[in-house]
């Protein structure tokens, strides 16, 4: 049994402005995932760029936002799709995982090009999240509508040379993903099992790698977004629980961070200039919260 972690309360950082909140009919993705809800947005995939700007994907309405350090929101991309996450590649390209279109490059304000729709015998089910390894390999999850009743969620890696490999295909909703700071370990959220799995980034030449449960959680829907800081701390957005958990590299709890409002915790990220400054995204209110863990 794990020892209890200190409970902290996050503070508001920024909220999606009223003029950027969708007011029309919900998209097909919104109808599928939140039937009956008039969804203004669903923010996911938080990450910081090298300038300290925070980026977010608005899944149901195909948008990618950039939030300046002072809290101003900028619409950078809007496509006919459902981007769950976007990252800036080492060469400056904006690469995204899109539920409808697969692995794509955002090539303009409203343009994109498809990089991959999957392997010949394994077309993508519906991509979820992504993370770059220090060596430039791109790891990403393919959840579709998998769950405990259909544990067929997948994990892929695209090597720097463009080779795509199916790593796992037995995950009950493969979701958030991050890598240890040295790139040796891959952490994957198995949302519908309420677990975080861990595997070595050094894959066998053929076949599936060995994988184990790194953390067993409870409550809410399960872990959504993951993030790892340079100290090896792992932050977890616990979906539909209004909180994030932080563990060290051995799996010992460091903190439980609760939001002052909202239950739809979707994403977490650490600030690049302060590895113990955690940002948490709540999709229910379209809000970003922050918590300083320096004194833990």
Could you characterize the architecture of this molecule?
The chain is mostly beta strands. It has a single domain, classed as TolB, C-terminal domain (Neuraminidase, 6 Propeller). Helix content is 2%, strand content 51%. It has one helix spanning 28-33, and strands at residues 7-9, 11-15, 43-48, 54-58, 63-67, 73-78, 83-88, 94-98, 102-106, 112-116, 118-119, 122-123, 127-132, 138-142, 153-158, 164-171, 174-179, 185-190, 195-200, 211-216, 222-228, 234-239, 243-247, 253-258, 265-271, 274-282, 287-292. It has a 5-stranded mixed sheet with strand order 1-24-23-22-21, with no helix packed on it. Strands 2-27-26-25 form a 4-stranded antiparallel sheet, with no helix packed on it. It has a 4-stranded antiparallel sheet with strand order 3-4-5-6, with no helix packed on it. The mean pLDDT is 96.
Strand and helix map with partners:
Layout: E1 7-9, E2 11-15, H1 28-33, E3 43-48, E4 54-58, E5 63-67, E6 73-78, E7 83-88, E8 94-98, E9 102-106, E10 112-116, E11 118-119, E12 122-123, E13 127-132, E14 138-142, E15 153-158, E16 164-171, E17 174-179, E18 185-190, E19 195-200, E20 211-216, E21 222-228, E22 234-239, E23 243-247, E24 253-258, E25 265-271, E26 274-282, E27 287-292
Parallel strand pairs: 1-24
Antiparallel strand pairs: 2-27, 3-4, 4-5, 5-6, 7-8, 8-9, 9-10, 11-12, 13-14, 14-15, 15-16, 17-18, 18-19, 19-20, 21-22, 22-23, 23-24, 25-26, 26-27
């Amino acid at each position: 049994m794990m020892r209890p972690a200190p409970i902290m309360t996050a503070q508001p950082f920024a909220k999606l402005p009223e003029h950027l909140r969708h007011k029309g009919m919900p998209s097909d993705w919104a109808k599928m995932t939140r039937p009956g809800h008039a969804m203004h947005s669903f923010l996911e995939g938080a990450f910081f760029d090298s300038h300290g700007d925070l980026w977010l994907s608005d899944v149901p309405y195909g948008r990618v936002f950039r939030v300046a350090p002072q809290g101003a929101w900028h619409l950078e991309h809007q496509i006919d799709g459902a981007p769950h996450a976007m990252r800036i590649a080492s060469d400056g390209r904006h690469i995204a995982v899109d539920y409808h279109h697969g692995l794509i490059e955002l090539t303009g304000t409203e343009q994109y090009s498809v990089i991959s729709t999957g392997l010949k015998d394994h077309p993508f089910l519906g991509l979820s999240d992504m993370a770059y390894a220090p060596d430039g390999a791109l790891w990403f999850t393919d959840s579709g509508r998998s769950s405990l009743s259909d544990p067929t969620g997948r994990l892929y890696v695209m090597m720097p040379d463009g080779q795509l490999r199916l790593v796992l295909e037995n995950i009950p909703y493969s979701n958030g993903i991050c890598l240890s700071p040295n790139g040796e370990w891959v952490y994957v959220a198995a949302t519908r099992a309420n677990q975080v799995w861990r595997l070595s980034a050094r894959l066998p030449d053929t076949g599936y790698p060995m994988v184990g449960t790194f953390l067993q959680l409870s409550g809410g829907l399960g872990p959504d977004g993951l993030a790892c800081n340079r100290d090896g701390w792992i932050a977890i957005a616990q979906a539909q629980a209004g909180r994030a958990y932080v563990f060290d590299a051995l799996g010992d709890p460091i903190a439980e961070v609760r939001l002052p409002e909202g239950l739809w915790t979707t994403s977490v990220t650490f600030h690049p200039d302060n590895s113990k400054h955690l940002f948490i995204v709540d999709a229910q209110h379209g809000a970003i919260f922050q918590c300083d863990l320096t004194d833990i």
